[in-house]
Design brief:
The complex is a heterodimer. Chain A is an alpha/beta fold. Helix content of chain A is 24%, strand content 24%. Chain A has a nine-stranded mixed beta sheet with strand order 2-1-3-4-11-10-9-6-7, with helices on both faces. Chain A has a two-stranded antiparallel ribbon with strand order 5-8. The chains are: A alpha/beta, B alpha+beta.
């Protein structure tokens, strides 16, 4: 049975939402404390939202030095699916596993609201079940969510089909309306919206399902073939 | 010997600086006119044990690149804080 690890840093606070979403999808889920150094046996790893290490210095700046991050990098190099949601996305960029950085929102306000996003690339473990151009409503909940990168990186993201989600109506000043990106191999994905909070129409939206269903059933072997690209990121 | 060092971290040229822009817009309202090019950043003050000041600054620069700044969007400059409170 598919087994997903949800990493908990001191200050993570979306681990139970992520875990519940995995349970709803019928897969096994285990919490992994940030001091652990082994991810053997997991089919996918989620870095959840929150404020890892208090977000001191910069979001993700201290979390990237947590012992578990070496294991996450190794797991990613081997083609394993890695998903960073919100703070988890910030950690993955600080760790250099995803390009770019997340800056304070354009309006300098914390934004917590349902947001329209459009699927761009489907060449990732998160979006491979969705269709290009598909519109989804997924909540965002962040202060530092403005995706930023230099011109060269932006051109590469476009050329390599690494932008997985764009905002319909850019809420935070993200470059190119980017809401989520993947690495070149497509097995490491980060996004600011919270798909794990969009799992039920009763609670506003079930649009997160198609993304997380994709994540837990991603064809790992095909991605392994391009793991060399991931290492070259 | 301990050498006092200041590390200043600022956003790289061309990276949007919403804090700096907001401060710049607020200043005229307080009567401070003619202020342009406001950039917000961070400053760290450290005491570093080293053989000489150059070695201390070298260490501070390494710290800045590894932890104190995110080189993807920020620049960091280390300088002596001797005589600075």
């Amino acid at each position: 049975m598919t087994r997903i690890g949800v990493i908990i840093f001191p200050g993570s606070n979306c681990e139970y939402d992520a875990s519940l979403a995995m349970t709803q999808l019928g897969v096994d889920v285990d919490f992994v404390w940030h001091s652990q150094t082994d991810l053997t046996g997991f089919d996918g790893v989620i870095l959840p939202g929150g404020f890892a290490h208090g977000d001191y210095l910069r979001p993700g700046a201290l979390a990237r030095f947590s012992p578990v991050m070496d294991a996450v990098a190794r797991f990613a190099r081997e083609g394993g699916p890695v998903l960073g949601i919100c703070n988890g996305f910030q950690v993955l960029t600080e760790a250099g596993l995803l390009p770019g950085a997340l800056q304070k929102n354009r309006g300098l306000t914390f934004i917590s609201e349902p947001t329209g996003v459009v699927v761009d690339s489907t060449n990732s473990v998160l979006t491979w079940l969705a269709s290009p151009g598909q519109e989804l409503t997924i909540p965002i909940n962040h202060f530092s969510g403005a995706y930023t990168c230099d011109d060269l990186t932006y051109e590469e993201l476009q050329a390599n089909d690494q932008v997985v989600l764009r905002y319909k109506d850019n809420p935070n000043g993200s470059r190119g309306d980017i809401a989520g990106v993947a690495n070149k191999a497509g097995n490491v994905v980060g996004l600011m919206p919270h798909p794990e909070r969009a799992m039920s129409t009763l609670l506003g939206s079930a649009d997160g399902k198609i993304l997380l269903e994709g994540f837990v059933s991603a064809p790992r072997r095909e991605l392994r073939a391009s793991a060399a690209n991931a290492a070259a990121l | 010997m301990n050498y006092p060092v200041i590390v200043e971290v600022t956003l790289r040229e061309g990276i949007a600086d919403p804090e700096g822009a907001t401060i710049e817009r607020a200043l005229p309202a307080l009567g401070f006119t003619g202020v342009t090019n406001v950039r917000a950043g961070k400053s760290f003050r450290l005491d570093i044990e080293a053989n000489d000041e150059a070695a201390a600054l070298l260490q501070a620069t390494a710290m800045a690149e590894r932890l104190l700044s995110n080189p993807v969007i920020e620049n960091a400059v280390a300088r002596s804080a001797k005589g600075v409170a």
